[in-house]
Amino acid sequence: MQAGKPILYSYFRSSCSWRVRIALALKNIDYEMITINLIKDGGQQLAIIEYLEETRPTPRLLPQDPKKRAHVRMISDLIASGIQPLQNLSVLNQVGQENQLTWAQQVIASGFNALEQVLQSTAGKCCVGDEVSMADLCLVPQVANADRYKVDLSPYPTISRINKSLLALEAFQVSHPSRQPDTPPELRA
Amino acid sequence: MQAGKPILYSYFRSSCSWRVRIALALKNIDYEMITINLIKDGGQQLAIIEYLEETRPTPRLLPQDPKKRAHVRMISDLIASGIQPLQNLSVLNQVGQENQLTWAQQVIASGFNALEQVLQSTAGKCCVGDEVSMADLCLVPQVANADRYKVDLSPYPTISRINKSLLALEAFQVSHPSRQPDTPPELRA
C-alpha cells in the first residue's frame, strides 16, 4: 500500500466501506476502487483506518491526548462493535424476514441510547470536541443505517446535530453511498 | 487513570473483561477490580487496551511495523466486532431460548472459518508472528466462548494450536474466568 496506489474494495451501501471512504477523502489519498456486490461485514475496516492514520498522519483522525483518543476509540467501538454488527446483512438474514425491521430498530435504538449519553459529555461540533475524528467516520454511516430502518431519531438530539453538521463537509459527501460507482440509478443523489 | 491506581469493572465470564485483564497482567499494572454482575457488552474494551498501549507501552501489544499492526488490528476487529457481539448475552436473549445454541454455534463457526484462514498467513506461535499482541488477547477469550457453546474446533487447527500455547502463559492464567473474585465456587479452577 505504501508503494502503489491503494485499492479499496468497496460496496456503495456498506457502512464499513463508507467509513474508509471518508478517511481517504479527509486525508486526500488518491485510490482505486473495486466495487464488490457482497461484502464481508464487521468492523474490520477500523484496522484500515488505524493503518491510514499511522502511515498518513495528516490530518489526524485521532486526537493527540490519550484520554481524548480513548474517547474517540470508545465511541468508534460502540458503533463498530456494539451496533453495526448486530444489524448487518448476514445477521438480518439469520433473523428471518418478518423480524428484520423490528430487530434492526431495536439494536440501533438500544445502541443510540448509550451513544447519545456518551456524546453529551464528549461532543463539540463533532463526536469528541470540534475536530473530525475516527468516531465521526463511524457515526455518519450508522445514522444513515438508522434512517434506512426508519428509527425515530427524535430521542437523540446530539447524534442528530453532529450528523447534520458532518454531512455538510466535502469528505462526507464525496464518500456518500448515493454517489458511488456502484450506486444503482434509483438511489443516486 | 495516570494518577491513581486504575479500577477495572470486571465480570468473570465476560470475554471483553478478560481481554483487558490479560493486557493488565502482561503490562504488570497493579489495579483494583470492581466486579459487576451485568456487563454492557461489545468490543469497547479495545479502547481500554489501546489506551493502555499508549500510556504504558511496555511490553508492546502492537508490533512496530505498520503492516503487522494492521494485521493485529484486523484480527482483533474480526473477533471483537465480527464474532463476539453476535454471540453476547443480550443478542442471545433476543434470539430466544430454543435457538440460542444453534445461533451461537453458527456465528462462531462462520467467524472462525474466516479467522483460521487469516491466521494461516499471519501466525507464528501467536496470532501475528511470535510476539503476544492485542489479537491474542481477543483470541483466547473467544475460544473459551466457543468451548462454552460446544463448537467443534477440529476444523480450526491454527486457532486451536495458538490458543493452547497462549493458555500456558502466566498472564492468560491469572486473568482466566475460573480464577476471578466473582467466579462462583462451582466454576473455580
UniProtKB/TrEMBL annotation, chains A, B:
The keyword S-adenosyl-L-methionine does not apply. CDD domains: GST_C_Zeta. Its EC number is 5.2.1.2. GO terms for biological process: glutathione metabolic process; L-phenylalanine catabolic process; L-tyrosine catabolic process. It is an enzyme of class 5 (isomerase). Belongs to the GST superfamily. Zeta family. Residues 4-136 form the GST N-terminal domain. It catalyses: 4-maleylacetoacetate = 4-fumarylacetoacetate. Its cofactor is glutathione. GO terms for molecular function: glutathione transferase activity; maleylacetoacetate isomerase activity. PANTHER family: MALEYLACETOACETATE ISOMERASE. This is maleylacetoacetate isomerase. GO terms for cellular component: mitochondrion. InterPro entries: Glutathione-S-Trfase_C-like, Glutathione-S-Trfase_C_sf, Glutathione_S-Trfase_N, GST_Zeta, GST_Zeta_C, Thioredoxin-like_sf. Keywords: Phenylalanine catabolism, Tyrosine catabolism. The keyword Nucleotide-binding does not apply. Pathway: Amino-acid degradation; L-phenylalanine degradation; acetoacetate and fumarate from L-phenylalanine: step 5/6. Residues 65-185 form the GST C-terminal domain. It comes from the Eukaryota.
